[in-house]
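TASK: fixed-backbone design
INPUT:
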């Protein structure tokens, strides 16, 4: 989604702004722009629809290379208010073209503000951000910080803002409410960014602004204020939790990230499991065991939601804890009956997803316990909740989530073993599970080595427009997740359905051009599902069967994907890599942009 980057310092800002906007590209966006100025009041405004490379070409053509600009703001826009046009691209400016603004998130009362301002000002765009620029002019009192506070007081809901007043060309100001804004310092410059991954490999220290804090940056020095009072901030060192987003030798980020999975899994497990003693060792999990709760409610969206679906039934059945899984956007608008004996767990790769974050607010307002499972270090949700665990998946750059889903599953599994041991899970069962977990990363590595197979399958299946992904029981989350990946990467229709439920209606859709991806390895419900697949086969259905390597029953399929055998509880992990790679190869064959699927964004920061 939208991304902000701002720079104030001694060097020429323009190349920095373009370069760092490229680091925000992974979030998904449809236009980009920048404003830069120097102490002699020379300035440049450029906006381009499409990729940052379009903006770069435009800048290359239009700007005078002998001029250096020391203060600048830049933005990638993911359209919400108004179409993808140059007029709607940020930065937006006030009537006199004095105040330039970039903004993330949504101002819910912008229509009201706009109709009040329209008597006096002409609007050139359909955006909510232009209202902020006009408000600056309307409320300016001679001091940019007090004006910023007056402006933000009028805004309903969330924002991260960076603003430059052309009359004060050395100064840059920023503010935030519910949307992240990070201040980075280096030797001769200060950066602002809305994304913790974007500039971490060049900065030495960073701090995050709290809600309603404002920052003033002048000549490479900064000051932070809260409601007019100066605030001293603690800075963190940038360390190896932040790695530069690099594609290495892979054709797409997606493939690179899928190939990182065995490492992600090893990392995630090593933080919490001692494989020598086959025991869980983690302070947070110990603390969790001390807490008094008899129910878990799990809240997430998209792939993070499907990760929970996988494990919820096991929490319930094996750790004896009543567990509900909720889609965050629905949870938010249903009647909330707070329960002090419920542990509310939120899960999010980005730690910024708007509806998940709003759920945390709602739960905390009722004094209930919140626990996070998040990937992005220092993200909003991680900082809001009472306690939590990182997935340690490293930076996930592409829009569709893969390696982090595995990281989430690993955390959930460790949590489940820890909670289970405190309840009715036997030590010997936990140990045998931990033994199998130890083997899992190597098993996943063997799957990665078979990528030619998925290319061949994609060649054969690219002609179909509709797919069923069939599941039963613990495989539901896996099937739903893999069908989501096919949809988002190829734009084909894919639906996850219970194998048994099929005959209660959807079987009517089955014919040879409507393939089913039947996920049915060796596990307790294998026999029963075979009968259902036979029903599809009898109706000339096309079957792509995900089957265990050592399964000798091989009669009713058109194609197979073989997966290694493991502990039944770990089965949901194993179809993921093959079916994700299948989707990637399908997308490539259909000439889709694998890393940046149409209409989607990485951090969904608007409701
Ligand atoms: C799908 C995907 C999305 C995200 C969803 C939640 O591949 O990436 O469905 O899972 O937008 O995002 P997070 O986990 O950041 O809250």
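OUTPUT:
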């Amino acid at each position: 989604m939208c991304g902000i980057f701002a720079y104030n310092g001694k060097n020429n800002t323009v190349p920095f702004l373009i370069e760092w906007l490229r680091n925000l590209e992974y979030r998904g966006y449809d236009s980009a722009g920048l404003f830069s100025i120097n102490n002699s009041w020379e300035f440049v405004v450029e906006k381009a629809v499409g990729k940052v490379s379009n903006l770069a070409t435009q800048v290359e053509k239009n700007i005078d290379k002998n001029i250096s600009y020391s203060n600048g703001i830049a933005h990638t826009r993911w359209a919400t208010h108004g179409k993808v046009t140059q007029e709607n691209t940020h930065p937006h400016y006030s009537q006199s073209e004095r105040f330039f603004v970039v903004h993330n998130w949504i101002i819910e009362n912008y229509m009201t503000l706009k109709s009040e301002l329209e008597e006096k000002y002409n609007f050139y765009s359909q955006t909510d951000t232009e209202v902020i620029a006009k408000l600056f002019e309307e409320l300016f009192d001679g001091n940019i910080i007090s004006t910023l506070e007056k402006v933000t007081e009028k805004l309903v809901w969330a924002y991260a803002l960076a603003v430059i007043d052309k009359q004060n060309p050395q100064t840059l100001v920023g503010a935030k409410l519910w949307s992240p804004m990070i201040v980075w310092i280096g030797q001769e410059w200060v950066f602002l960014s809305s994304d913790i991954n974007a500039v971490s490999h060049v900065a030495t220290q960073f701090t995050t602004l709290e809600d309603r804090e404002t920052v003033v940056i002048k000549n490479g020095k900064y000051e932070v204020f809260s409601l007019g009072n100066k605030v001293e901030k603690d800075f963190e060192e940038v360390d190896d939790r932040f790695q530069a987003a690099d594609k290495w030798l892979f054709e797409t980020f997606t493939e690179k990230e899928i190939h990182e999975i065995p490492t992600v899994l090893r990392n995630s497990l090593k933080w919490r499991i001692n494989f020598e003693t086959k025991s869980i060792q983690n302070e947070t999990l110990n603390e969790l065991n001390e807490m008094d709760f008899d129910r878990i409610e799990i809240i997430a969206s998209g792939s993070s939601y499907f990760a929970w679906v996988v494990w919820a039934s096991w929490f319930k059945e094996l750790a004896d804890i009543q567990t509900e899984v909720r889609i965050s956007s629905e949870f938010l608008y249903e009647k909330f009956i707070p329960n002090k004996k419920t542990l509310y767990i939120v899960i999010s790769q980005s730690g910024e997803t708007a509806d998940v974050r709003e759920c945390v607010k709602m739960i905390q307002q009722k004094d209930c316990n919140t626990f996070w499972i998040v990937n992005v270090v220092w993200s909003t949700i991680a900082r809001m909740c009472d306690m939590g665990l990182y997935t340690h998946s490293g930076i996930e750059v592409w829009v569709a989530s893969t390696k982090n889903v595995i990281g989430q599953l690993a955390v959930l599994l460790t949590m489940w073993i820890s909670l289970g041991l405190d309840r009715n899970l036997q030590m010997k069962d936990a140990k045998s599970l931990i033994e199998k977990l130890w083997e899992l990363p190597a098993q996943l590595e063997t799957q990665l080595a078979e990528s030619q197979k998925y290319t061949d399958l994609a060649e054969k299946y690219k002609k179909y427009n509709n797919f069923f992904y069939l599941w039963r029981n613990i495989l539901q989350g896996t099937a739903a997740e893999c069908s989501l990946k096919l949809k988002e990467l190829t734009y084909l229709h894919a639906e996850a359905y219970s194998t048994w439920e099929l005959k209660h209606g959807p079987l009517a859709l089955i014919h040879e051009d409507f393939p089913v991806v039947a996920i049915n390895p060796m596990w307790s419900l294998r026999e029963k599902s075979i009968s259902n697949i036979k029903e599809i086969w009898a109706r000339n259905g096309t079957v792509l069967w995900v089957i265990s390597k050592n399964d000798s029953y091989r009669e009713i399929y058109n194609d197979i994907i073989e997966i290694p055998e493991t502990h039944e509880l770990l089965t949901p992990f194993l179809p993921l890599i093959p079916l994700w790679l299948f989707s990637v190869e399908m997308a490539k064959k259909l000439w889709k942009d694998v890393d940046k699927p149409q209409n989607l964004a990485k951090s969904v920061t608007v409701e």
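COMMENT: The mean pLDDT is 88.
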